[in-house]
Amino acid sequence: MEYRTIIEPFRIHSVQAIDLPDMTTREAALDRAGYNLFGLHADEVIIDLLTDSGTGAMSSEQWAGMMRGDESYAGSRSFFRFEGVVKDITGLEEVIPTHQGRAAEKILFSVAVKDGDVVPNNTHFDTTRANVEFQGAEARDLVIPEGTDPAAILPFKGNMDIGRLRSTIKEVGVDRIPLVMVTVTNNSGGGQPVSMQNLRDVRAVCDEYELPFYLDACRFAENAWFIKLREDGYADRTPREIAKEMFSLVDGATMSAKKDGLANIGGFLATNDESIAMNARNLLILTEGFPTYGGLAGYDLEAVAVGLEEVLDENYLRYRIRSTAYLAETVAGAGVPIVQPPGGHAVYLDAAALLPHIPSHEYPAQALAVELYRAGGVRGVEIGTVMFGKPDPDGGPDSPAPMELVRLAIPRRTYTQSHIDYVGEVVIDVAARAESLRGLTMTQQPPWLRHFTARFAEMG
Q1: Do residue 326 and residue 394 come from a single domain?
Q2: Where are the alpha helices (DSSP H) in 268-349?
Q3: Rounded to an integer, what distance in angstroms lies between the CA atom of residue 193 and that of residue 226?
Q4: pTM of the full predicted structure?
Q5: Domain end (from 280, 310, 340)
Q6: What share of the chain is helix, strand, coil (3-state, %, to 5)?
Q7: What is the rounded end-to-end Cα distance, in angstroms, of the chain?
Q8: Is the pLDDT of residue 426 over 90?
Q9: Higher model confidence: residue 3 or residue 416?
Q10: In CATH, what number is assigned to the domain containing residue 298?
Q11: Which of 52, 160, 276, 361 suits a disulfide with 397, CB 3.0-4.6 Å?
């Protein structure tokens, strides 16, 4: 018999105390941080769901691996272990370590993308988009129409729209498209997976036009698990076999190992293009470090190597996806609008549906995220017009993002079911008084990735 209770497929070996700041402390923290949750101190947060990137708990095997770390500047044994694991899973020939995913993106786009280019993606996430735009190129999102409808229920809402991909190629010309990219799972679109068939279809278009195809592979294992659960012909395949097939369809990949690498730091760029790899390594030496450490300590390389193996364990993936769905079912069951179906790494609250009285230029998702923290010390992150809207050069309202979401990203192997029950209670409490929430005005913003450091004031 299969029981309903979700049990963590691990035992707790070590614990870390959680601070429990009271309402007065939280209110003062919001004021100091300019109502930007990135500005909070960690000890001012009770449950931290800001990101699942680098915030997970490492296993005893990872900690043991770190003790074997070889800190040689060049030719470290730890690098060759890391390289071997990445090559075995991805099948890609050139492996370049970086300190995290955005460093891999920066290096790839610096050597492959030029001013005036267009980079198609199902949906670029924040740093990916910023690194494309920093090169003077356009980051164009081509997710299927249902991918921007939070209420639509499809098994693979992260899929790229193949028709729009073809139209984009015909519109701008092959010479202006240096590569096509697909993000798995589709973070900006609610952590939605991409089907194997869609990856094959993108591959076919890229072959037709002789375009390189790259994967943003931060959550490749979660995507593989969704394929196993939802796509015909994969139920009897292992996550590792499915992941290998995914990577066999691409020419390269970037990855933040802080997600499905189960590590606190690390990433890589992998490719089959020797020219890209040579130029990338030259830039790596200027910015990250020697090609056999790439900005990482030897013990970090060991932790990532172990994590990439552990993340493909079926018991872990079953727990991971089911525990995220548990929070989604809890809040949706109480009538809170969310992105459906639940994604793999996070629950996305639909702030536009919950707060229809707050227009996009008053940042409803940021207002909701602020109130979740104020009410219960739960820190999420806005994925809406603060993150993806465009400022009006004439000082008018920002152009809105396609969706106004609050992402509650669940760190891996970190919180228990009682923590998640508490988060559900906070969300339901805030949603019950949604009509009383006020919008925000942005008082300060930087030119790039403004959501990290912008400041706000609550509207009267």
Answers
A1: yes
A2: 274-287, 298-310, 314-333
A3: 7
A4: 0.94
A5: 310
A6: 45, 15, 40
A7: 55
A8: yes
A9: 416
A10: 3.40.640.10
A11: 361
Per the structure block, which two tokens stand in for 108? 């790839």
Residues 282 and 410 in one domain: no
Closest CA to 82 of 286, 265, 307: 307
Q: Does residue 319 share a domain with residue 255?
A: no
The tokens describing 385, both together, are 């017009």
Identify whether residues 260 and 206 lie together within a single domain: yes
**In this structure, what token pair is assigned to residue 443?**
């008082």
Q: Which two tokens stand for residue 434?
A: 């949604």
Count CB neighbours of 394 within 10 A: 5
For 324, phi and psi rounded to 5 degrees? -65, -45
Other C-beta atoms closer than 10 Å to the C-beta of 239 total: 23
Angstrom distance (rounded) from CA 33 to CA 339? 28
pLDDT digits (tens, 9 = 90+) for 12-63: 989 999 999 999 999 999 999 999 999 999 999 999 999 999 999 999 999 9
Which of 323, 318, 310, 380 lies closest to 351 in space, CA to CA?
380
Q: Give the C-alpha separation, 277 to 274, whole Å.
A: 5
Structure tokens at 358: 């707050």
**Residue 396 scores a pLDDT above 90:** no
CA distance 372 to 426: 7
CATH code, domain carrying 431: 3.90.1150.10
Q: What is the dihedral of CA 126, 131, 133, 134, to 10 degrees?
A: 130
Look-up: residue for tokens 């830039």? 283
Both tokens assigned to 419: 């923590």
**Per-residue H/E/C for 59-96:** CHHHHHHHHCCCCCCCCCHHHHHHHHHHHHHHCCCEEE
Q: Select from 74, 77, 54, 91 the least CA-distant residue to 270.
A: 91
